UniProtKB/TrEMBL annotation:
<feature type="binding site">
    <location>
        <position position="159"/>
    </location>
    <ligand>
        <name>substrate</name>
    </ligand>
</feature>
<keyword id="KW-0093">Biotin biosynthesis</keyword>
<dbReference type="GO" id="GO:0005737">
    <property type="term" value="C:cytoplasm"/>
</dbReference>
<keyword id="KW-0663">Pyridoxal phosphate</keyword>
<dbReference type="InterPro" id="IPR015422">
    <property type="entry name" value="PyrdxlP-dep_Trfase_small"/>
</dbReference>
<feature type="binding site">
    <location>
        <begin position="126"/>
        <end position="127"/>
    </location>
    <ligand>
        <name>pyridoxal 5'-phosphate</name>
    </ligand>
</feature>
<keyword id="KW-0949">S-adenosyl-L-methionine</keyword>
<feature type="binding site">
    <location>
        <position position="322"/>
    </location>
    <ligand>
        <name>substrate</name>
    </ligand>
</feature>
<dbReference type="InterPro" id="IPR015424">
    <property type="entry name" value="PyrdxlP-dep_Trfase"/>
</dbReference>
<dbReference type="InterPro" id="IPR005815">
    <property type="entry name" value="BioA"/>
</dbReference>
<comment type="subunit">
    <text>Homodimer.</text>
</comment>
<keyword id="KW-0963">Cytoplasm</keyword>
<dbReference type="Pfam" id="PF00202">
    <property type="entry name" value="Aminotran_3"/>
</dbReference>
<dbReference type="InterPro" id="IPR015421">
    <property type="entry name" value="PyrdxlP-dep_Trfase_major"/>
</dbReference>
<dbReference type="GO" id="GO:0009102">
    <property type="term" value="P:biotin biosynthetic process"/>
</dbReference>
<feature type="binding site">
    <location>
        <position position="289"/>
    </location>
    <ligand>
        <name>substrate</name>
    </ligand>
</feature>
<protein>
    <recommendedName>
        <fullName>Adenosylmethionine-8-amino-7-oxononanoate aminotransferase</fullName>
        <ecNumber>2.6.1.62</ecNumber>
    </recommendedName>
</protein>
Length: 439
Protein backbone atom coordinates (compact mmCIF):
# COMPACT_ATOMS: atom_id res chain seq x y z
CA UNK A 1 0.00 0.00 0.00
CA UNK A 2 1.35 3.46 -0.78
CA UNK A 3 2.30 5.51 2.29
CA UNK A 4 -0.16 8.36 2.89
CA UNK A 5 1.46 11.72 2.27
CA UNK A 6 2.51 13.45 5.46
CA UNK A 7 1.18 16.95 5.99
CA UNK A 8 3.94 19.54 5.90
CA UNK A 9 4.56 21.08 9.33
CA UNK A 10 2.76 24.37 9.88
CA UNK A 11 4.94 27.44 10.23
CA UNK A 12 4.32 29.10 13.65
CA UNK A 13 2.57 32.13 12.09
CA UNK A 14 0.31 29.95 9.97
CA UNK A 15 -0.50 27.72 12.97
CA UNK A 16 -1.51 30.72 15.05
CA UNK A 17 -3.64 32.20 12.26
CA UNK A 18 -5.52 28.89 11.80
CA UNK A 19 -5.84 28.50 15.56
CA UNK A 20 -7.44 31.93 15.84
CA UNK A 21 -9.82 31.18 12.98
CA UNK A 22 -10.96 27.68 13.96
CA UNK A 23 -10.02 26.60 17.47
CA UNK A 24 -11.96 27.35 20.61
CA UNK A 25 -9.69 27.45 23.68
CA UNK A 26 -10.74 26.85 27.33
CA UNK A 27 -12.82 29.66 28.79
CA UNK A 28 -12.11 31.79 25.73
CA UNK A 29 -14.09 33.78 23.14
CA UNK A 30 -14.35 32.83 19.46
CA UNK A 31 -12.45 34.12 17.59
CA UNK A 32 -9.70 34.08 20.21
CA UNK A 33 -8.14 37.27 21.48
CA UNK A 34 -5.17 35.96 23.48
CA UNK A 35 -2.19 34.47 21.66
CA UNK A 36 -1.46 30.91 22.88
CA UNK A 37 2.14 29.65 22.84
CA UNK A 38 2.62 26.80 20.33
CA UNK A 39 4.28 23.80 22.03
CA UNK A 40 6.36 21.51 19.83
CA UNK A 41 7.14 18.75 22.34
CA UNK A 42 7.49 18.07 26.05
CA UNK A 43 9.92 15.95 28.04
CA UNK A 44 10.57 15.60 31.76
CA UNK A 45 9.36 18.86 33.30
CA UNK A 46 10.05 20.97 30.21
CA UNK A 47 7.76 22.23 27.45
CA UNK A 48 9.59 22.98 24.19
CA UNK A 49 8.06 25.84 22.24
CA UNK A 50 7.86 25.90 18.45
CA UNK A 51 9.81 29.16 18.54
CA UNK A 52 11.27 31.27 21.33
CA UNK A 53 8.92 33.45 23.37
CA UNK A 54 10.45 36.34 25.30
CA UNK A 55 13.88 34.79 24.75
CA UNK A 56 12.94 31.28 25.97
CA UNK A 57 12.54 28.14 23.87
CA UNK A 58 12.04 25.78 26.82
CA UNK A 59 9.83 26.37 29.84
CA UNK A 60 9.78 24.54 33.16
CA UNK A 61 6.17 23.47 33.59
CA UNK A 62 4.74 24.80 36.85
CA UNK A 63 1.22 23.58 36.04
CA UNK A 64 1.57 19.81 35.28
CA UNK A 65 -0.94 20.45 32.47
CA UNK A 66 -3.71 21.44 34.86
CA UNK A 67 -2.36 19.25 37.68
CA UNK A 68 -2.32 15.97 35.78
CA UNK A 69 1.26 15.27 34.55
CA UNK A 70 2.65 14.17 37.92
CA UNK A 71 5.47 12.08 36.40
CA UNK A 72 6.46 14.72 33.84
CA UNK A 73 6.24 14.30 30.05
CA UNK A 74 7.44 11.61 27.67
CA UNK A 75 7.99 9.18 30.53
CA UNK A 76 9.48 5.85 29.33
CA UNK A 77 7.20 3.72 31.56
CA UNK A 78 4.00 5.47 30.45
CA UNK A 79 5.17 5.55 26.83
CA UNK A 80 5.78 1.79 26.96
CA UNK A 81 2.34 1.14 28.49
CA UNK A 82 0.66 3.18 25.74
CA UNK A 83 2.70 1.63 22.93
CA UNK A 84 2.17 -1.91 24.15
CA UNK A 85 -1.58 -1.40 24.48
CA UNK A 86 -1.75 0.32 21.08
CA UNK A 87 -0.34 -2.89 19.55
CA UNK A 88 -3.27 -4.86 21.01
CA UNK A 89 -6.24 -2.49 20.68
CA UNK A 90 -6.67 1.21 21.23
CA UNK A 91 -10.38 0.93 21.92
CA UNK A 92 -13.25 -1.48 22.15
CA UNK A 93 -16.74 -0.81 23.44
CA UNK A 94 -17.38 -1.61 27.11
CA UNK A 95 -21.01 -2.71 26.77
CA UNK A 96 -20.99 -6.52 26.78
CA UNK A 97 -17.18 -6.65 26.52
CA UNK A 98 -14.40 -6.22 29.04
CA UNK A 99 -10.60 -6.23 29.03
CA UNK A 100 -7.58 -6.58 31.24
CA UNK A 101 -6.45 -2.92 31.46
CA UNK A 102 -9.83 -1.75 32.82
CA UNK A 103 -10.19 -4.69 35.23
CA UNK A 104 -6.64 -4.31 36.55
CA UNK A 105 -7.11 -0.56 37.04
CA UNK A 106 -10.43 -0.94 38.84
CA UNK A 107 -8.92 -3.50 41.23
CA UNK A 108 -5.89 -1.27 41.89
CA UNK A 109 -8.07 1.81 42.60
CA UNK A 110 -10.36 -0.20 44.90
CA UNK A 111 -7.27 -1.48 46.78
CA UNK A 112 -5.72 1.98 47.18
CA UNK A 113 -8.79 4.13 47.87
CA UNK A 114 -10.12 4.62 51.40
CA UNK A 115 -11.60 1.33 52.63
CA UNK A 116 -14.94 0.14 51.31
CA UNK A 117 -14.92 1.91 47.92
CA UNK A 118 -15.08 -1.33 45.97
CA UNK A 119 -16.99 -0.47 42.82
CA UNK A 120 -15.54 1.61 39.99
CA UNK A 121 -17.37 3.42 37.17
CA UNK A 122 -14.88 4.57 34.51
CA UNK A 123 -15.80 7.90 32.97
CA UNK A 124 -14.16 10.03 30.31
CA UNK A 125 -13.47 13.27 32.22
CA UNK A 126 -13.58 14.70 35.72
CA UNK A 127 -16.82 16.56 35.05
CA UNK A 128 -18.51 13.39 33.79
CA UNK A 129 -17.34 11.48 36.87
CA UNK A 130 -19.07 14.15 39.02
CA UNK A 131 -22.25 13.83 36.88
CA UNK A 132 -22.12 10.07 37.53
CA UNK A 133 -21.58 10.62 41.27
CA UNK A 134 -24.64 12.90 41.45
CA UNK A 135 -26.71 10.43 39.42
CA UNK A 136 -25.64 7.56 41.72
CA UNK A 137 -26.71 9.52 44.83
CA UNK A 138 -30.06 10.66 43.45
CA UNK A 139 -30.81 7.19 42.14
CA UNK A 140 -29.84 5.63 45.49
CA UNK A 141 -32.60 7.62 47.21
CA UNK A 142 -35.08 7.17 44.37
CA UNK A 143 -34.53 3.40 44.64
CA UNK A 144 -35.12 3.65 48.39
CA UNK A 145 -38.52 5.26 47.73
CA UNK A 146 -37.27 8.76 48.66
CA UNK A 147 -37.25 10.62 45.31
CA UNK A 148 -37.63 13.94 47.12
CA UNK A 149 -34.01 13.58 48.30
CA UNK A 150 -32.50 15.07 45.15
CA UNK A 151 -30.61 18.20 46.18
CA UNK A 152 -26.88 18.43 46.86
CA UNK A 153 -25.22 20.31 49.72
CA UNK A 154 -21.81 21.86 49.28
CA UNK A 155 -19.76 24.72 50.65
CA UNK A 156 -19.12 27.87 48.68
CA UNK A 157 -15.78 28.41 46.96
CA UNK A 158 -15.74 24.97 45.32
CA UNK A 159 -15.19 23.81 41.75
CA UNK A 160 -16.42 20.49 40.35
CA UNK A 161 -16.34 20.89 36.57
CA UNK A 162 -18.11 22.49 33.64
CA UNK A 163 -21.02 20.18 32.76
CA UNK A 164 -24.49 20.81 34.18
CA UNK A 165 -24.62 19.20 37.64
CA UNK A 166 -20.98 19.95 38.45
CA UNK A 167 -21.69 23.61 37.57
CA UNK A 168 -24.62 23.62 39.99
CA UNK A 169 -22.27 22.81 42.91
CA UNK A 170 -19.48 25.21 41.89
CA UNK A 171 -19.14 28.47 43.80
CA UNK A 172 -22.37 30.30 42.94
CA UNK A 173 -21.01 33.81 43.54
CA UNK A 174 -17.42 34.45 42.52
CA UNK A 175 -17.13 31.41 40.27
CA UNK A 176 -16.98 31.17 36.50
CA UNK A 177 -20.46 29.60 36.28
CA UNK A 178 -22.29 32.48 37.98
CA UNK A 179 -23.92 33.27 34.62
CA UNK A 180 -26.07 30.13 34.93
CA UNK A 181 -27.29 30.58 38.49
CA UNK A 182 -30.95 31.00 37.43
CA UNK A 183 -30.94 27.97 35.13
CA UNK A 184 -29.05 25.34 37.16
CA UNK A 185 -30.61 23.02 39.75
CA UNK A 186 -30.76 24.95 43.04
CA UNK A 187 -28.44 23.33 45.56
CA UNK A 188 -27.87 24.01 49.25
CA UNK A 189 -24.78 26.11 49.98
CA UNK A 190 -22.85 26.45 53.23
CA UNK A 191 -20.34 29.26 53.69
CA UNK A 192 -16.77 28.37 52.61
CA UNK A 193 -14.91 26.44 55.30
CA UNK A 194 -12.69 28.78 57.36
CA UNK A 195 -9.14 28.81 55.94
CA UNK A 196 -6.03 27.08 57.24
CA UNK A 197 -5.03 23.42 56.98
CA UNK A 198 -3.58 23.52 60.51
CA UNK A 199 -6.37 25.64 62.05
CA UNK A 200 -8.65 24.11 64.67
CA UNK A 201 -12.21 23.69 63.32
CA UNK A 202 -14.38 26.65 64.22
CA UNK A 203 -17.32 25.75 66.48
CA UNK A 204 -19.54 28.47 65.00
CA UNK A 205 -18.96 27.18 61.48
CA UNK A 206 -19.68 23.59 62.53
CA UNK A 207 -22.94 24.77 64.13
CA UNK A 208 -23.94 26.51 60.89
CA UNK A 209 -23.26 23.29 58.93
CA UNK A 210 -25.41 21.34 61.38
CA UNK A 211 -28.22 23.89 61.02
CA UNK A 212 -28.21 23.38 57.23
CA UNK A 213 -28.46 19.60 57.63
CA UNK A 214 -31.22 20.06 60.21
CA UNK A 215 -33.21 22.26 57.80
CA UNK A 216 -32.60 20.39 54.53
CA UNK A 217 -31.86 16.71 55.33
CA UNK A 218 -35.27 15.60 54.03
CA UNK A 219 -34.45 16.90 50.53
CA UNK A 220 -30.70 16.18 50.46
CA UNK A 221 -29.33 13.26 48.43
CA UNK A 222 -25.68 13.98 49.24
CA UNK A 223 -23.05 16.47 50.31
CA UNK A 224 -20.24 16.98 47.79
CA UNK A 225 -16.96 18.77 48.51
CA UNK A 226 -13.31 18.89 47.58
CA UNK A 227 -11.57 17.68 50.74
CA UNK A 228 -8.84 19.90 52.26
CA UNK A 229 -8.07 21.93 49.10
CA UNK A 230 -10.59 23.95 47.10
CA UNK A 231 -8.75 24.13 43.79
CA UNK A 232 -10.07 26.08 40.81
CA UNK A 233 -12.55 27.85 43.09
CA UNK A 234 -9.73 29.76 44.79
CA UNK A 235 -6.83 27.51 45.90
CA UNK A 236 -7.91 27.61 49.55
CA UNK A 237 -6.86 25.08 52.20
CA UNK A 238 -9.03 24.08 55.16
CA UNK A 239 -8.83 21.81 58.18
CA UNK A 240 -9.49 18.08 57.64
CA UNK A 241 -11.70 18.51 60.73
CA UNK A 242 -14.43 19.98 58.49
CA UNK A 243 -14.36 16.89 56.28
CA UNK A 244 -14.68 14.69 59.39
CA UNK A 245 -17.59 16.83 60.57
CA UNK A 246 -19.33 16.46 57.20
CA UNK A 247 -18.98 12.67 57.40
CA UNK A 248 -20.54 12.68 60.89
CA UNK A 249 -23.38 15.00 59.86
CA UNK A 250 -24.10 12.91 56.75
CA UNK A 251 -24.32 9.77 58.89
CA UNK A 252 -26.47 11.43 61.51
CA UNK A 253 -28.94 12.95 59.03
CA UNK A 254 -29.10 10.17 56.41
CA UNK A 255 -27.25 11.95 53.59
CA UNK A 256 -24.54 10.44 51.33
CA UNK A 257 -21.04 11.97 51.16
CA UNK A 258 -19.23 12.49 47.84
CA UNK A 259 -15.58 13.55 47.93
CA UNK A 260 -14.26 15.08 44.73
CA UNK A 261 -10.55 14.20 44.70
CA UNK A 262 -10.08 14.94 41.02
CA UNK A 263 -7.51 17.60 41.95
CA UNK A 264 -6.26 16.27 45.29
CA UNK A 265 -5.98 12.53 44.51
CA UNK A 266 -2.68 10.72 43.93
CA UNK A 267 -0.50 12.54 46.43
CA UNK A 268 -0.86 16.23 45.62
CA UNK A 269 -1.62 17.30 49.23
CA UNK A 270 0.96 14.99 50.83
CA UNK A 271 -1.48 12.09 51.42
CA UNK A 272 -2.33 9.64 48.61
CA UNK A 273 -5.95 10.82 48.92
CA UNK A 274 -6.85 13.99 50.84
CA UNK A 275 -9.62 12.06 52.64
CA UNK A 276 -6.80 10.31 54.54
CA UNK A 277 -5.92 13.60 56.32
CA UNK A 278 -9.42 13.36 57.81
CA UNK A 279 -9.48 9.57 58.25
CA UNK A 280 -12.76 9.51 56.35
CA UNK A 281 -14.26 7.17 53.74
CA UNK A 282 -16.87 8.80 51.51
CA UNK A 283 -19.79 6.90 50.00
CA UNK A 284 -18.69 8.07 46.55
CA UNK A 285 -15.23 9.23 45.40
CA UNK A 286 -14.33 11.02 42.14
CA UNK A 287 -10.83 10.67 40.68
CA UNK A 288 -9.34 12.08 37.47
CA UNK A 289 -6.54 14.38 36.30
CA UNK A 290 -3.37 12.61 37.62
CA UNK A 291 -5.04 9.21 37.15
CA UNK A 292 -3.33 8.73 33.75
CA UNK A 293 -0.28 10.82 34.65
CA UNK A 294 -1.70 13.43 32.29
CA UNK A 295 -1.43 11.19 29.20
CA UNK A 296 -5.08 10.60 28.29
CA UNK A 297 -8.48 11.69 29.48
CA UNK A 298 -9.94 9.33 32.08
CA UNK A 299 -11.78 9.63 35.38
CA UNK A 300 -13.37 7.24 37.83
CA UNK A 301 -16.32 7.31 40.21
CA UNK A 302 -15.90 4.82 43.04
CA UNK A 303 -18.67 3.83 45.43
CA UNK A 304 -19.37 1.49 48.31
CA UNK A 305 -21.45 -1.69 48.06
CA UNK A 306 -24.15 0.11 50.09
CA UNK A 307 -24.61 2.64 47.25
CA UNK A 308 -24.44 0.03 44.48
CA UNK A 309 -26.82 -2.35 46.25
CA UNK A 310 -29.18 0.52 47.03
CA UNK A 311 -29.40 1.37 43.33
CA UNK A 312 -29.84 -2.31 42.40
CA UNK A 313 -32.86 -2.61 44.72
CA UNK A 314 -34.77 0.06 42.77
CA UNK A 315 -37.53 -0.22 40.21
CA UNK A 316 -34.84 0.59 37.62
CA UNK A 317 -31.97 -1.47 39.02
CA UNK A 318 -29.27 -0.28 36.61
CA UNK A 319 -27.19 2.89 36.46
CA UNK A 320 -28.19 4.31 33.08
CA UNK A 321 -24.84 5.76 32.08
CA UNK A 322 -22.44 4.40 29.44
CA UNK A 323 -20.14 6.75 27.55
CA UNK A 324 -18.93 5.53 24.15
CA UNK A 325 -15.32 5.59 25.32
CA UNK A 326 -16.02 4.10 28.74
CA UNK A 327 -13.06 2.10 30.06
CA UNK A 328 -10.92 3.02 27.04
CA UNK A 329 -8.12 0.40 26.93
CA UNK A 330 -5.35 2.88 26.08
CA UNK A 331 -6.34 5.24 28.89
CA UNK A 332 -6.83 2.47 31.46
CA UNK A 333 -3.52 0.79 30.52
CA UNK A 334 -1.64 4.07 30.96
CA UNK A 335 -3.55 4.86 34.17
CA UNK A 336 -2.61 1.48 35.63
CA UNK A 337 1.06 2.08 34.72
CA UNK A 338 0.93 5.60 36.15
CA UNK A 339 -0.61 4.61 39.49
CA UNK A 340 1.80 1.67 39.83
CA UNK A 341 4.72 3.94 39.00
CA UNK A 342 3.58 6.38 41.67
CA UNK A 343 3.21 3.67 44.31
CA UNK A 344 6.59 2.13 43.47
CA UNK A 345 8.46 5.30 44.39
CA UNK A 346 8.83 7.55 47.41
CA UNK A 347 6.21 9.97 46.11
CA UNK A 348 5.55 11.31 49.62
CA UNK A 349 9.25 12.21 49.97
CA UNK A 350 9.16 13.93 46.56
CA UNK A 351 6.05 15.93 47.53
CA UNK A 352 7.65 16.91 50.87
CA UNK A 353 10.82 18.04 49.07
CA UNK A 354 8.77 20.17 46.65
CA UNK A 355 6.75 21.58 49.57
CA UNK A 356 9.99 22.67 51.30
CA UNK A 357 11.27 24.26 48.09
CA UNK A 358 7.98 26.08 47.50
CA UNK A 359 7.82 27.32 51.09
CA UNK A 360 11.41 28.64 51.03
CA UNK A 361 11.18 30.09 47.54
CA UNK A 362 7.81 31.79 48.04
CA UNK A 363 8.46 33.21 51.53
CA UNK A 364 10.01 36.44 50.15
CA UNK A 365 6.87 37.01 48.02
CA UNK A 366 4.90 37.68 51.22
CA UNK A 367 6.70 41.03 51.49
CA UNK A 368 5.92 42.19 47.95
CA UNK A 369 3.46 45.07 47.46
CA UNK A 370 0.02 43.80 46.42
CA UNK A 371 0.52 40.31 47.90
CA UNK A 372 -2.21 39.32 50.35
CA UNK A 373 -1.00 35.85 51.33
CA UNK A 374 1.47 33.12 50.47
CA UNK A 375 0.51 29.52 51.26
CA UNK A 376 1.75 26.02 50.53
CA UNK A 377 0.43 22.52 51.09
CA UNK A 378 2.07 19.42 49.62
CA UNK A 379 3.13 20.17 46.04
CA UNK A 380 0.89 23.26 45.83
CA UNK A 381 2.21 26.81 46.16
CA UNK A 382 -0.01 29.89 46.02
CA UNK A 383 0.70 33.62 45.96
CA UNK A 384 -2.61 35.40 46.45
CA UNK A 385 -2.71 39.07 45.47
CA UNK A 386 -5.01 41.78 46.82
CA UNK A 387 -6.23 42.45 43.25
CA UNK A 388 -7.12 40.61 40.02
CA UNK A 389 -4.00 39.26 38.27
CA UNK A 390 -2.99 40.95 35.02
CA UNK A 391 -2.72 37.51 33.38
CA UNK A 392 -0.87 38.73 30.26
CA UNK A 393 1.75 40.63 32.29
CA UNK A 394 2.19 37.80 34.82
CA UNK A 395 2.51 35.15 32.08
CA UNK A 396 5.06 37.27 30.22
CA UNK A 397 7.18 37.72 33.37
CA UNK A 398 7.05 33.96 34.11
CA UNK A 399 7.98 33.01 30.53
CA UNK A 400 10.89 35.49 30.61
CA UNK A 401 12.04 33.63 33.73
CA UNK A 402 11.75 30.32 31.79
CA UNK A 403 8.59 29.00 33.49
CA UNK A 404 5.04 28.17 32.40
CA UNK A 405 2.35 29.41 34.81
CA UNK A 406 -1.37 30.01 34.27
CA UNK A 407 -2.62 32.46 36.93
CA UNK A 408 -6.33 33.09 37.46
CA UNK A 409 -8.44 35.57 39.43
CA UNK A 410 -6.17 36.92 42.19
CA UNK A 411 -3.91 33.85 42.21
CA UNK A 412 -0.45 33.04 40.94
CA UNK A 413 0.07 29.40 41.80
CA UNK A 414 1.99 26.25 40.93
CA UNK A 415 1.31 22.50 41.04
CA UNK A 416 4.50 21.13 39.48
CA UNK A 417 5.16 17.50 38.45
CA UNK A 418 6.52 15.42 41.36
CA UNK A 419 9.75 14.82 39.39
CA UNK A 420 10.62 18.54 39.47
CA UNK A 421 14.17 18.87 40.88
CA UNK A 422 15.24 21.41 43.50
CA UNK A 423 16.78 23.83 41.00
CA UNK A 424 13.62 23.80 38.87
CA UNK A 425 11.38 24.32 41.94
CA UNK A 426 13.57 27.34 42.76
CA UNK A 427 13.15 28.54 39.18
CA UNK A 428 9.37 28.23 39.46
CA UNK A 429 9.24 30.19 42.72
CA UNK A 430 11.50 32.90 41.27
CA UNK A 431 9.15 33.16 38.27
CA UNK A 432 6.14 33.39 40.60
CA UNK A 433 7.80 36.26 42.47
CA UNK A 434 8.61 37.97 39.17
CA UNK A 435 5.00 37.50 38.03
CA UNK A 436 3.66 38.86 41.33
CA UNK A 437 5.80 41.99 40.93
CA UNK A 438 4.20 42.93 37.62
CA UNK A 439 0.70 41.49 38.05
C1 LIG B 1 -12.01 19.28 41.91
C2 LIG B 1 -12.34 19.17 40.45
N1 LIG B 1 -13.44 18.52 40.07
C3 LIG B 1 -13.76 18.37 38.76
C4 LIG B 1 -12.98 18.93 37.77
C5 LIG B 1 -13.38 18.76 36.32
O1 LIG B 1 -12.53 17.87 35.69
P1 LIG B 1 -12.41 17.87 34.08
O2 LIG B 1 -11.78 19.16 33.71
O3 LIG B 1 -11.56 16.68 33.78
O4 LIG B 1 -13.79 17.74 33.55
C6 LIG B 1 -11.84 19.64 38.13
C7 LIG B 1 -11.00 20.28 37.10
O5 LIG B 1 -10.26 21.20 37.34
C8 LIG B 1 -11.50 19.78 39.50
O6 LIG B 1 -10.43 20.46 39.90
Amino acid sequence: MPEPARAAPLAPDELLALDRQHVWHPYGPMPGTAEPLPVESASGVRLRLAEPAYGQRELVDGMSSWWSAIHGYNHPVLNAAATEQLGRMSHVMFGGLTHEPAVRLAKLLADLAPGGLEHVFLADSGSVSVEVAVKMCLQYWRSAGRPEKRRMLTWRGGYHGDTWHPMSVCDPDGGMHQLWSGALPRQVFAEPPPPGFEAEPDAGYLASLRALFERHAGELAAAIVEPVVQGAGGMRFHSPGYVRALRELCDEYGVLLVLDEIATGFGRTGALFAAEHAGVTPDVLCLGKALTGGYLTLAATLCTPRVAQGIARGEVPVLAHGPTFMGNPLATAVAYASVELLCAQDWAGAVRRIERGLRNGLAPAAGLPGVREVRTLGAIGVVQLDHEVDVAAATRAAVRAGVWLRPFRDMIYTMPPYVTGEADVARITAAMRAAAEVA
